[in-house]
Amino acid sequence: MKTTYREAVRAALRDALETDPRVFLMGEDVGRYGGAYAVSHGLLEEFGPERVRDAPLSESTFVGAGIGAALGGMRPVVEVMTVNFSLLALDQIVNNAATLHHMSGGQLSVPLVIRMATGAGRQLAAQHSHSLECWYAHIPGIRVLAPATLEDARGMLPSALRLPDPVVIFEHASLYGMEGDLADDAGAVELDRAAVRREGRDLTCITYGGSLGKVLAAAAELAREDISAEVLDLRSLRPLDVATLVASVRRTRRALVVDEGWKTGGLAGEVSAVLMEQAFYDLDAPVARLCTAELPIPYAKQLEDAALPRVETIVAAARALLPAR
Amino acid sequence: MTELVEQFRMPSLGADMQAGRLVQWLKAPGDRLRRGDIIAEVDTDKGAIEIEVFTDGVLSEILVPEGERVPVGTALALIRREPAEGEAPPTPAAEAPSAAAPRQRVSPLARRLAAERGVDLARVKGTGPGGSISAADVEAAAGTAEDPAVRMRRAIGAAMARSKREIPHYYVSTAIDMGPAVEWLSERNRDRGPAERLLLGAVQLKAVALALREFPELNSWWVEGAAVAKPAIHVGMAIAMRQGGLVAPAVHDTDRRDLDELMRMVRDLVDRARRGALRSSELSDGTITVTSLGERGVDAVTGVIYPPQVALVGFGRVAQRPWVVDGRITPRPIVTATLSADHRASDGHRGGLFLARVEQLLQEPGKL
Amino acid sequence: MTTDATFSAAVSPAEGATAAHQIDLLRTMLLIRRFEEKAAELYSAGKIRGFLHLYIGEEAVATGVIQALTPEDAIVATYREHGQALARGVPAGAIMAEMYGRANGCSRGRGGSMHLFDVTRRFYGGYAIVGGGLPVAVGLALADRLRQRRRVTVCFFGDGAVAEGEFHESLNLAALWELPVLFVCENNLYAMGTALGRHQSQPDIARKAEPYGVTSASVDGMDVLAVESAARQAAESVRRESRPHLLEARTYRFRAHSMYDPDLYRTREEIERWKLRDPLILLRGRLESQGALPAERLAALEREVDTRVAAAVAEAEAGELEPVEGMLDDVHTPPAR
What we know:
Helix content of chain C: 40-55%
Distance between the termini of chain C: 49 Å
Low-confidence stretches of chain C: 1-12
Mean pLDDT of chain C: 93
Strand content of chain B: 25-35%
Shape of chain C: globular
Number of strands of chain C: 8
Number of strands of chain B: 20
Mean pLDDT of chain B: 85
Order of helices and strands of chain B: EEEEEEEEHHHEHHEEEEEEHEHEEEEH
Radius of gyration of chain B: 24 Å
Largest sheet of chain C: 6 strands, parallel
Order of helices and strands of chain C: HHEHHEHEHEEEHEHEHHH
Strand content of chain C: 5-15%
Oligomer: heterotrimer
Structural class of chain B: alpha+beta
Largest interface: A-C, 42 and 47 residues
Radius of gyration of chain C: 19 Å
Shape of chain B: elongated
Largest sheet of chain B: 7 strands, mixed
């Protein structure tokens, strides 16, 4: 079946609304408007305003209400328009959603799914383009997912809804229009494992979300130079699938982490540190990181392009890890 | 402005040489250097070799410490050339930076492999990012980290295997009456002590060298698909090492030395080869090889060409044999000379003519 | 004013409260008072650590409001929530053990004084980020609405929280979506050390409900009968109409904000003046004037409460320490649940 990433997420939402009466959608413009990225388009008409709820611009409160509703036995799916806006709800996510199970000595659980768009590449400047996945990945008590493929766009949501704890799902905004084939019976996917999206021998390129496509393109280019790059899609940013990560790097001996977040204090650093701890004696070159330049994302196209990891910079970074030829 | 500081690099001492270990610096910073001075001693797969400078100047800085193994082409030292007419003297700022040699970078995997295989990292040259030592470098070095005899065996094996793999050998032999040469030598040596005596080997070398003047296709190197005739004749002389293995240092300009000079050179080469004090140019410059196993009692030697050379002459022992002279059988001292030649560079016809020329030259030793 | 006339003025005391009921209220307030006095002593002795925010002086608010709830109703509280927990029936021993950080604490030593939870009593805990509990209460009410359960969620918060955006967002959302939340503002006049008049342009908190179309009332938070009466009417309305209500209880804390607070922002005279209206004294005086609380009855009540507090301390003292090996057990819900 030909579909898009957007339609795959919508199919997952529709499926959840159809099969579980506890599920409802809540967020800014998810109903009448159809979703800022048109993900929930048509669902209000299908399921009605009780289950597809347009929320006021009160990120903290509608996310907190999602937490409360989850405590009250529901399975809310809350959409926050972008990760930048989610900072207004950070208190609820970090101080409440992530802590309640623990703080209550295991009495409470918060089965809440929060979806948000992330990432740059659309000339939306410095308040709509950032990749703050690592802020959430820092927090114990929540799970953080980054679907990068149609299968994961379709399958991560139902799996997340089966979990008893809060899950934050980051959908890179540049992926919504991505087209491809999806099996007619596509459904829930497992969430624990990173995926090898391309096998290789000479180095492992580790990435996730919106950067996966660029890294795969870079790997294809590297193959023309007879450099065999393995591409690893993290999928879950918290917890990290350390076993798969380490196994791949042990095989290839070299690692390049490509992350649209900033380098300083970021996920790429976390991945790198994991490799230092668990694969140090298997490394044949320092772990390399390719991240977004250390600046707020600029508006002008050439500046934004220059700030982000690109296919050619990924190729160059990979090449630099390998012996001179 | 002409660059007045030159890098002195690890020389290539043979087509198969990839790296050398700097055993000892024989000059210190500040020493004056003349072209041809021995500046250092380098250990190679084939043994220790003295390396010489080709520049007049002053040794300004040593870049590679003793004990370190570096690949061919690595800058070993900086030599400040003496300014020629019109050249400005170097200002201090123009001198190369004199920072201490940076700490060698070794990947964790390479370090682990080196520990497991007992490889001395100081002997490994890095080809990884930023010149760091990678696992592959250690693996390559692991093969050369054994005792020198084993290393030499491996190097000979590599060269000979390459020779037999790549070079289409042909062989021609001829039996040569050494009577005139033996008689001439005994006359020459009559009043000399053992150390000054001329040996038959020197006579054979000279005969081969002179014959080569007329057969440039045998005094050639096979380089990148073509034979390149060498302008000078430097006959390499195979010398067996006591611990096993062999080297074939070149006797430079063999054809232009008189026999006494040649004999001195041969003695010196044998002595230095066994001390491990050969010069780099001696190991790399040979244009043909002569090997003589007469002392081992063999009748004939059919040798393997040492690439990139294209020919090798083997001499067996000189033995009294029945020989027909003027229709009568008479005992004569006979040697079998065998030419192994690269068919890509020459044909048997020319090889035969070459041996005939060698024979002819040996009949008139006084003219050698 | 658009506020409902029924709740527009301070609600008068429940006329019909029986003596027995009033003694029950006194017992609860006395338990809270003695329990906290003991907690302060144990804090000074180093048995209790972390922050300890005492409710002393405000007992009438929790005691009165919780009278209005059924067991199915939910409570969201703040970091000053010993009173709510005790009034809701969370065992004193489990609370004291929690403050001791013991395995038999109501949060198994993970929460401490500020984070008491008891899901069986729908006590959804103490929230220590000011204003942070309000959206959660809204969500609990949303779940009830979606599941069509006629329940009330009571959300306690202080006067400091009305400066937070979440207060306004929550009132708006609860009104907009017609959610059954009873917002109870415990106005003790100080946001930590900042007096109400120094942080609110409109210090009449009940009036802040008006722009959101939320009914509201103010009540004398030192009079437990008045609080109970107002809370009963409010809760009934919330339950019936499935709409939020804001009840402001004007009260005062007699102790400092927390144990480590020199109380420099209030005068001794102000504190002493409020102590004249101590909710325990007010209720005791009323009972005594009715002849319903003979001295021996009061003494018996005191002994009973002292015994319960002593038992709670003993329970906490006897509690085991949670094993460090199990430290990570409560970060995520086990899959089997």
